[in-house]
Write a structure and sequence with these properties.
It is built from 6 helices and 2 strands. The protein is α+β, with helices and mostly antiparallel strands.
Length: 87
């Protein structure tokens, strides 16, 4: 889902569910790859304070065999964004 779409949804939840204290984003590596760190930080500031990244496997051969569309190196690169988002 695009940053703009996620932004709209987060702001809508914040506007209509005033008492909502937590929103979570369940994402794949390709979803995170399409987002800049500043975008992920903004989404966090809008209330998306949980991020779960489905990695499927950390083994490059398994990822290729399953046709996941990313490598083990991609997985590491995208997961390294997390400390910058929280920090």
């Amino acid at each position: 889902m695009s940053y703009e779409n996620l932004k709209l949804r987060a702001l809508t939840v914040r506007d209509y569910l005033i008492k909502c204290q937590a929103m979570a984003m369940f994402a794949g590596i390709r979803d995170i790859r399409d987002k800049e760190v500043w975008q992920l930080k903004k989404l966090r500031a809008m209330g998306i304070n949980g991020l779960t990244i489905g990695t499927e496997s950390g083994d490059g051969d398994t990822l290729a065999l399953a046709g996941k569309g990313y490598t083990a190196a991609d997985l590491l690169e995208q997961c390294r964004k997390e400390p910058e988002i929280v920090g």
